[in-house]
Amino acid sequence: MAKSSTWYSRFAKAASHFCGRPRVFTLAVAMIVVWVVTGPLFGFSDTWQLVINTGTTIITFLMVFLIQNTQNRDTEAMQVKLDELIRATKGAHTALLDLEELEEEELDAFRAKYEALATQARARLKRGEVDTDSPEA
Question: Mind giving me the DSSP string for 87-127?
């Protein structure tokens, strides 16, 4: 299977990996400290405040897109892995594959079914019974 081939995917992955390092956090804190220390030199002027506001706004704006890209990729990979576990498990309900693509009402119906199963299982546990079966079997 091919690795990420688009320039944006490669860039987002590398940037999120880089930005998540402790050294980058330390650099960000150092930049804020330098900004605070230079406050008296600039008389805590509006321009001095505008520098940090503009810089942090731009960085935050760009990081939102990088984080969202990384989160989307991670979520999709996890969904595929979960789908494979469902597919490969004997007795599992393959209708549960790809649930993230269902409409809200359909998803609510599945959730209600599993909430009912959980309620029944908890009741069995309170009676001292085991909770390791397949109720539909």
Answer: HHSTT--GGGTTGGGS-HHHHHHHHHHHHHHHHHHHHHHHT
